[in-house]
Amino acid sequence: MRRVDAPRTRRGGRGDRLVRWAGALRIGAVICLVMAAAGIRLPLPSRSRSVALLIDSSAAMGVRGLAEERAAALGLVASLPASDRIRLLTFDEKPRLLGGPWTPDEATAALRSIPLGRPDSPESQGSDLAAAVDMAAALQGDDHPASSAIALFGAFHPTTGGLTSLVSLARGRAIFTLPLGPPPELLSSDGLDAPAEARPGEQLQLAWHLHAQKPTGLRWELLVDGRVEVRGSSRVVPGPVVIGASIGAGEAGYRRLEFRVLDTNGLPLPSLTIGAQVKVGEVGKVLVISGDTVPSPILAALRTQGIAARGGSVSALPASSSGFAGLRALILDDVPALLLSPAQQRALSSFAASGGGLLFVGGPSSFGRGEYFSTALEDLLPVHTDTRPRLFHSRARILFLIDHSGSMSQKVGGESKQEAAMRGVAAAIGELEPYDEVGVIGFDSSPSWILPFTPVSKLGDVGSVISAIPEGGGTDLSSALLAGIAGFGAPGPTKRHMVVLTDGFTSSADWETLTNTLTAADISVSTIAIGDQVDETLLKGLAEAGGGRYWRAKGDRIPEVIDQETLRLTRDLMREGSFAPTVDVSGAMTDGLAGAPPLRGYLVTTAKALARVWISVPVPGSTSGDPLLASWRWGAGQVAAFTSDSGGRWAGAWLAEGRANRLWAQLLRSVESTAAQGGLVVRASIRGGTATITAEARRPEGGSWSGLRLSAEDSDEGRDIVLVERAPGLYSGELPVTAAGLHRISVRSGTDLSGETAVWNPGAAAAMGAGPDRAVAEELARRSGGGILDPAAPELPPPSLGLRAVEALSPLALLALAILLAELWLRSALSGQIAAARRSFAAWISKRLADARSLSGGPYMGVEPVDKGARHD
Q: Residue 641 pairs with which residues in a beta bridge?
């Protein structure tokens, strides 16, 4: 017979659950006991804080600085509530925990008794803020950042450990800074401006920046490769001081430069010594293309700087990528886009993308006035040349004067010159804004209005209207101009311009009076000469006197020239007057250019989104200026744009002062790429005793070189690191630097690629004489969410409710005992012991009550109970 199990009752199911609960309670009790034995700390809500005091004990503080730090720390501790807990750390080249966590009273006693500095230790010469902050955050690791704070006392001159990682090392904790220490010495060094690279024979312009606290005299010397090359003496006044020197770069190789100040005994002061390394490379090929028939002034300026450059016209510009072989940089000085063929423009783009440097220089025929808009050159530039939204006039009124004399019927490329002109005018009208007005006058021996001034938005088939111009006989330009002047009416806010298209000579007239009339009527004139037989002197002079432009159009380029002239005059392109440039970004491109004399004009452009504007020109009524010098990366190369000219018309004051020579050399050095033909370009900067190294690797054909294993080595200290690839072909890393002085850093790979650079580590001696660096203290406090405290009355903000780690031995032991009692009760209930005890207790109570009742109804020890209802006499 098959056995059939009875279904589990509800009571039985509940019992199983209670058994499982009892087992879970026992496991929980065991876990609590284990955690208690392990010394676990639990985060519990609390308004108390964990405060770490980090005191700079390096030699830069001195005895006076340590005393100031101790006094400020005592003041801060005295302001803390009794519930806060304090740890005390000191640091120089290494951090040390002096004790804690303490109550404020205990911390006060420790600060008064424990020595803070180690003046006799060689380790005390340096300062490592990063290691100190990291140790403090690690000691506070169990506490929530909201319940923790770090108070950092010192001069804020780290000589190792860097500064970039300080905020991340704090792990979300607010850092409150107290800049303290001896005041700066009489003189302090602020840096050396020296080019990283130069060419053989080039003049190196050096500038050493110092800061003086009071008037003083100083003697200094400049050493090149260990030999004194220049000596000098200066009388300085309080404030910034610049010591300049110019030396020859010498032959190819590396030049080690070192400036130093001498004391009264002629010995160098360690705190006032600075150096740099300059790589003198091969003579790079530089080509300067001029848009004019005369050589560019830039050519002579570069040669003055020792730069071997060659000049040429647009015809010397290569039309294929192979033509740029060996060329490191190219300068186009006032070159209009129309002079460059599409193939030449594409070749320029390829040259920049493969690592070459391009510099565009403005002038009357460059950028917007050179019709760069909608060309490959516009794409290359870091600025927009189409400034249509910035018109000075609300709209334009343009009058085309079309010569329809008999000579215009001559065929050119399958159509007559007159037909080509009319086709060009019809196409050019499409470039105008809807609110612009256009008119057409046809003229031979007399003028006639073909199209009265009509808004572009109301024009119908312009081509059919213009095609109605008949072929005529002679040419009388003066009468056509007079008819146009009358048609414009009185001057107003509208831009008024005439475009004359003619192929021949015209009858004589009083041109001087006519141009004066045009000027008085506020009408500008441009002339387009068509054909080979033209009165170029007359047409060119008329355009110059009329404030327009003279064009020479041949063959099938007639429509293109007309279209470009229309584009030119419908845009606000040029500002002339007196403009004081403003240096917006300091760097290799702008060294020594602050305070340059005013310019007399420039071409108006707008910076593109990814461009960097180095120098700008203020614009009245605008919060942002127009770019004067801008640059950006194009592929692997650099492209820069200077919107004033090379000196012929607008930058004459710069030429006269010699400022232009420095400008062109700096711009050329900044845009040209030593990696254009493949190799490594290595750069380095140093801050807080850590050198940040970047290396750009390019293949021989110019493309980015990824997947390399690059290592950087400090040749002077023997340290090395492996660089990490951050982007295709771009590698970087941080290398600790300890010793003061110049450090040569070489980067190599297994593919025979190599490069070298150098950094100057000022070391502890410079930090000792520089005084507290308040700028670093402010930046660190701001980035961490803390603040700068007044050392005279330091006080942290009131604590907020947060989670604080508390020793859990007692709470966990009590919790385990409670869990065990609950488990014991539950198991007793499951075995019926509690129910049996309850029944036994109830029976015992019942029996006691029954006994009490029986006793109350009978005699007790022979005495009858009293009848409460009976009467007694």
A: 360, 630
Give the DSSP letter of residue 5. P
Q: Of the candidates 133, 184, 195, which has an alpha carbon nearest to the alpha carbon of residue 158?
A: 133
698 contacts 729 by C-beta, under 8 angstroms:
yes
Alpha helices, H only, 546-679 = 558-569, 652-657, 659-671
CA angle 835, 841, 847 (to 5 degrees): 135
pTM here? 0.52
Q: List residues bridging with 732 in a β-sheet.
A: 694, 724
Structure tokens that stand for 844 in this block: 């015992």
Rounded distance, CA 65 to CA 768, Å?
11
Strands 174-179 and 148-154: what pairing? parallel
Q: For residue 9, is pLDDT > 50? A: no
* Pairing status of strand 396-403 against strand 495-502: parallel
DSSP letter string, 589-608 = TTTT-TTPPPEEEEE--EE-
- Collapsed DSSP state (helix, strand, coil) of residue 645: coil
Token pair in block for residue 471: 């072929």
**Helix, strand, coil: what percent of the chain each, to 5?**
30, 35, 35
Q: In this structure, which amino acid lies at residue 842?
A: A
Give every CB contact of residue 830 below 8 A, 6+ residues apart in sequence. Answer: 15, 18, 19, 22
Q: Got the DSSP string for 803-857? A: EEEEE-HHHHHHHHHHHHHHHHHHHHHHTTHHHHHHHHHHHHHHHHHHHHHHHHH
Nearest Cα residue to 359 out of 340, 341, 383 = 383
Structure tokens at 679: 């190799």
* C-alpha–C-alpha distance, residues 352 and 383, integer Å: 16
What is the reported pLDDT for 417?
78
pLDDT band, very low/low/confident/very high, at 671 (cuts 50, 70, 90): confident
Q: Which residues of 817-837 are buried (b: 16+ CB within 10 A; e: fewer)?
A: eebbebbeebbeeeeeeeeee
- C-alpha to C-alpha distance for 549 and 369, rounded to whole angstroms: 10
Q: d(Cα 292, Cα 365) in Å, to the nearest integer?
A: 9
232: left (phi over 0), alpha (psi -120 to 50) or beta: beta
The pLDDT assigned to 50 comes to: 87
User: How does pLDDT run across 562-584, given as a tens digit for each residue?
Assistant: 777 776 665 557 777 788 888 88
By the 8 A CB rule, do 506 and 477 touch?
Answer: yes
DSSP letters for 484-532 = HHHHH-S--SSEEEEEEEE-S------HHHHHHHHHHTT-EEEEEEESS
State how far the Cα of 213 lies from the Cα of 234, in Å rounded to an integer: 15
Strand-pair partners of 245: 206
Greatest Cα-to-Cα distance within the chain, rounded to the nearest angstrom: 170
Distance CA 86, CA 108 (A): 10
The string of pLDDT tens digits covering residues 65-95 is 899 999 999 999 999 988 888 999 999 888 9
Instruction: Express as a percent the part of the chain with pLDDT over 70.
Output: 80
